[in-house]
Structures are given as C-alpha cells and as structure tokens.
Design brief:
heterodimer, A: 180 residues, alpha+beta, Glutaredoxin, 2 domains, four-stranded mixed sheet, 4 strands, 44% helix, B: 435 residues, alpha/beta, Rossmann fold, Ubiquitin-like (UB roll), five-stranded mixed sheet, four-stranded parallel sheet, 11 strands
C-alpha cells in the first residue's frame, strides 16, 4: 500500500517534492493556478494526498480548504486514500470493448478473486475499469502507473500478474518513451 | 493513392529517433520558426494560416486563422493552450504526434503563439499519458536549451514560456473552457460562451486553445505556403487530416489522409478491409460523440467535413471506430452511455440527469426489463438534452444514442421481444461498475 500517514502527524515534503512545488509556484501565473502540479507532486511522493498534504496546499496556494477538496474530488486520478501496490486499470470503452475488454476483465477478476472496482485483501492489487486510454488501435489495453500494456490477451495478463507478484514490472509497450 | 503519399504531419511516425531535436532539425525542423521570426509579422502569419483554410482538428473544425483573429489588437497579455487532453473514445492521433514528433508540435505552437502575441503557453496533456508527458517535457527542455523557447527567441526579441501541464482524468477538460478553468485552479467545468476565450479566457485575458494536430500543421503552412497546403484536400476541407482507426480491420492505426478521400478506398486499400471472418456493420467516423453510420451509408461518403455532414454525421476528431457485424449495438450503446454519464461534469441539469437516465434505461433494456415504450422514452430524454447545456457534452451523448436508435432499431426491438418472454436476467454479469 502507499504510505499511510498518521492523520495528525506533521509531514514535510521530500526534497524533490518541495522543488516541484516551488517550481510550479514560480512558473504558474497565479498561486491558485499551480494547484494541479502541486497535487501531482504530493501524490507522486505519497501515492495519495493525505490531510497533511491538503494543509500544505492551503498554506502554499492561499486557497480555501474547500477549493482543494473541490479539485481533488473532481479528477479521477487524484486520490485521497492510500492505494494498492499495483492499480490495474483496464479500459472498458467502446474500441477496447469491441476488441475484447470484457473477457479480459472477467479473466482478471477470476485470477485476482475480486470484482472490478475492488482491491485484493492483501492490498497488493486493485482492479479498475477506466475510460478510453488512447490505445484504441492497440486494444484491449491496461494501464499500470506510467506503463501502458496493449494488445492484451488473458495469457499476457497472466504473465503480467505473475511478474508483478515476483516484484517485477514487465516491459510495457510504451516503455520505449521512458527509455529513449 | 497510398498511405505514404501524404506525410506532412506523419513523416516521423513509427520511427525510433523522430522525437529527437537533432533529427527534427536535420529534416528541416524549426526552419519555419526561423522564417517567421526572421521577417514575418504576427498578422502575416495569421493571414497565411487563414488563407490555408486550416480547420481546428480537435473536433469542431473551426478555422484556426479566424479564431486567432478574434484576439483583440493591443491586448496586454495573451495566453495560448495546446489541447492535448485527447480523451474522445476512438481517438489516439495526438498521442502519435507527441510521441513520434514532439518538436513538430512545439514548433507549431511557438509560431501560433507568436501569431497571437502570447507570452505564456500551456501544453495540457491528459494525465493518463504519463509516459508521454515525460517525452514532451524532454523535448520542451531541448527546445529551451536550443534557444527556441524562453527569452529573446533566436534573437528576435520575442519571449515565450511553455509549461507542460498534466491533467488528472476528466473528459470534460477537453472542452476549451473546461480546459482553461482546470488550469485556473478550479473544477474543470466549462463556462458559457460568449464571452469567447479569444476575448476573455484564462484569468480573464484573451486566450487561444488549439488542438495538437492544428498547431502541428502550422510549420508546413509557413514553410510551403497556403497554396501548397490547399493542394491537398477539398475547397472546404483543405489539407490533410489524421484518422485513428480502431476495430477489427486488418491494419488499424493512425493514418494521414488528404481530406476528400473516398471512405471505400481508405477502407479497402489502406486499412485492408475487415479481419478474416468479420463483416463491416457500421462506422463511427469522428470519435464516439458523432452519429454512427451503417456500412451502406459510410461506403458512399468521402472523408471530409462536407461529405460527412451531408451524410448526417461529422468528421469530428478523426477517431474512426469500425464496428463488426458480430457486435451487439445495444451493448455498444450501453458502453457509450456509461461513459457520458461517468464524464458529465454535473454542472447542467439536462446533462447531469439526462446522461444518467439514458444509461439506466439502456441498462434496463439489456437487463431484460425493457418495454417498447422505453425506446420512445430514450428519444424523449434526448430531446430534453440536445442543445440545452453550456457545453456540447450532452449533445455528444445524444448523437450516438439517437443514431444507434434510428439506424439499428430492429436490434433494440428484438432484444425487448426476446427478453419479454425470457423474463429479467443479467446480461452483463461481470465487469460493470454499478451506476
């Protein structure tokens, strides 16, 4: 699971996080307009935005607590609760559907023993259905953080799960972009 | 005609090194920017793009040069946004542009910013493209280091800052005012127009929002001129357009085509037709929000704004979804109605409630509890949504719903009849989020 913070414990952002927040505050034309990059900085460190992160945003951006929650809750990618180690996001929109997203989801549900939208009891895997990931010509597809796996089959999904269970994130179709 | 004849946007697609600055420069990259900063006025750039007839490639098709012309002369601060929030189901062309050729988009953006005298621009990339954002950021860093961005670009005295902004998962932010509001630091809900962003947008200042493909088309127009651009396409649809093709065709992917290309030729010769054993049933030609056409209808269309308009649909984003005979149209519309219900921002009642009703009614039909009256009810709900909201998301849900009903009504009726005798049953036992 991503880091669980004591709700009352003080939290200081890591150096890299602090640097990203400072850069956003320097480059965006108003403090409030820097809220999304600041949230990303916090979430990339902690896996989610805990209450201490909200406190920091309120203090740094000079916006109300309500505004921070408004933005956090509006976007599906922002999280306020700790996440599973591996959040498997399967596209279930039309193009992937035509190419077999439903059987793929059913297979993953069976293999993980959870329904779509649930997390395994050990907190290792979450299975989510998401909307179009822009891989329509390469479907069905699954996103895991920055890795996008395309042309998935039940066999390839099994290999992915096995690899993750061994602690290895297998090479994804989009990893070329991260390597070059 | 063959796919390789038209490569003004896609010259580096599929290449391993095309994203690198050195490669882009070696192949003529940033020549257009030098030409512009070396002696063209912003008005001259605007006129050239207007003369080329470049139409917005995000979906609406509004002429880019005309849009730029709406920025008031003498505005003290102008902002520019590149809309890379590519989220329209079936659309994945901007992903290719930014992946294989980010500098082409960056160069086009700098020129576009100069044309409207913007000093700060944002490249708003959907958050799901985490891998792509790193790619674009690296390219922007390269452009800064080479003096194409920042202060006094190429010694011209023109200053421009470029920020790569990461979205966070909201389809609505692809709508230009939603996108602007998102960066303002609020919910990304659209604003009513007028005022149009070109007059009053980001932080109340004149703001231009252009799609990735639109700005990526600008370097060619500057280098070769409006007439050379108009040598491609038709009178009302000049130039080339990227189509991203998904579904069971032999060669899915992103294609650059001269507008006006007959669909039949594109489908048979470029895409290679359907995969073995599949038969063409229908095509959604411009992203999931445009009306679906049956195989018979689309086969007589040309791929341009006017021909597709006459056929009752739209060119949209060029996200072409090919639907095989084996697909159940009621099932597909349930997928789409779930999407629009999920993505409605909740601001306008007709959309917030209407998308929910459409989804629930279709779901009820598929659950075996539908009646013949439900089909009229769907139409009734659509009537209460179309054109009655701040942004086009409600319309985007209504257009597929209505066209699926109109074009494939026998499938809906057969389902109702079949389930009337079988009684309620779950047709979608797995994999659906309850809504």
């Amino acid at each position: 699971m991503s880091k669980q913070l004591d709700a009352k414990a003080p939290w200081t952002p890591a150096t890299g996080t602090r640097a990203r927040i400072d850069e956003a505050l320097r480059r965006y034309p108003t403090k409030a307009s820097a809220i999304m990059p600041c949230i990303w900085a916090i979430q990339d460190e902690l896996g989610h935005v805990p209450p201490a992160g909200v406190d920091l945003l309120v203090a740094e951006l000079g916006v109300t607590r309500a505004r921070v929650h408004e933005v956090l809750s509006f976007y599906t990618m922002f999280r306020t609760e700790p996440q599973a180690d591996h959040v498997l996001q399967v596209c279930h929109n039309i193009s992937c559907h035509i190419l077999g997203a439903r059987p793929l989801i059913a297979h993953l549900e069976k293999r993980l023993g959870v329904r779509l939208g649930e997390t395994t009891p050990d907190g290792r895997f979450a299975l989510e259905g998401v909307e179009c990931l822009g891989a329509c010509g390469h479907g069905p597809c699954l996103q895991l953080g920055k890795h996008l796996y395309e042309h998935l089959t039940p066999e390839k999904a099994d290999a992915l799960l096995d690899s993750l269970r061994r602690g290895q994130v297998p090479r994804a179709d989009t990893d070329r972009e991260l390597e070059d | 005609m063959s796919p390789n004849d038209y490569r003004m946007l896609s010259a580096r697609f599929g290449r391993r090194d095309g994203h690198k600055l050195a490669v882009y420069e070696a192949e003529g990259g940033y020549r257009a920017l030098r030409k512009v900063l070396g002696g063209m006025s912003p008005a001259q750039v605007r006129e050239e793009v207007k003369a080329a007839g470049l139409r917005g490639r995000g979906g609406a098709g509004f002429p880019a040069g005309v849009k730029w012309g709406f920025v008031p002369e003498g505005a003290d601060q102008v902002y520019f946004f590149v809309n890379a929030d590519e989220s329209e189901p079936g659309t994945f062309k901007d992903r290719y542009l930014l992946d294989y050729d980010p500098h082409q988009t960056i160069e086009g953006t700098i020129i576009s910013c100069y044309a409207v005298r913007a000093s700060l621009c944002f490249v708003y990339i959907r958050g799901e493209f985490g891998w792509l954002i790193d790619r674009v950021q690296k390219a922007v860093d390269e452009a800064y280091a080479a003096g194409y961005l920042g202060r006094d670009i190429l010694g011209s005295g023109y200053d421009l800052e470029m920020i790569v902004h990461k979205g966070a998962g909201a389809y609505i932010c692809g709508e230009e005012t939603g996108l602007i509001n998102s960066v303002t630091g609020t919910k990304g809900q659209p604003s009513i127009k007028p005022p149009f962003p070109a007059v009053s947008g980001f932080l109340g200042k004149p703001t231009i929002v252009n799609n990735v493909e639109t700005v990526a088309s600008v370097p060619f127009i500057v280098n070769e001129g409006a007439a050379a651009y108009r040598a491609f396409g038709t009178e009302k649809s000049p130039g080339t357009k990227l189509f991203s093709v998904s579904g069971p065709v032999k060669r899915p992917g992103v294609y650059e085509i001269p507008l006006g290309l007959p669909f039949r030729e594109f489908f048979n010769d470029w895409l290679g037709g359907m995969t073995d054993g599949e038969k063409l049933k229908a095509v959604i030609v411009g992203g999931s929000s445009v009306p679906v056409l049956s195989a018979g209808e689309i086969m007589n269309c040309n791929l341009d704004y006017e021909s597709l308009g006459q056929a009752g649909t739209m060119l949209g984003s060029g996200g072409m979804i090919v639907i095989p005979e084996s697909s159940d149209m009621v099932e597909l519309i349930q997928v789409l109605m779930h999407f629009y219900f999920d993505e409605s921002c909740g601001q306008c009642t007709p959309c917030r409630e209407g998308t929910g009703w459409l989804h629930r009614i279709v779901k009820r039909l598929r659950g075996g509890e539908g009646t013949a009256e439900d089909l009229d009810l769907l139409e009734h709900v659509c009537n209460g949504m179309m054109g009655l909201t701040i942004c086009p998301l409600a319309d985007a849900a209504v257009m597929p719903m209505r066209s699926f009903l109109a074009g494939f009504r026998p499938e809906f009726e057969a389902l109702i009849q079949e389930t009337a005798s079988a009684g309620p049953q779950s047709r979608w036992p797995r994999g659906e989020r309850e809504a």
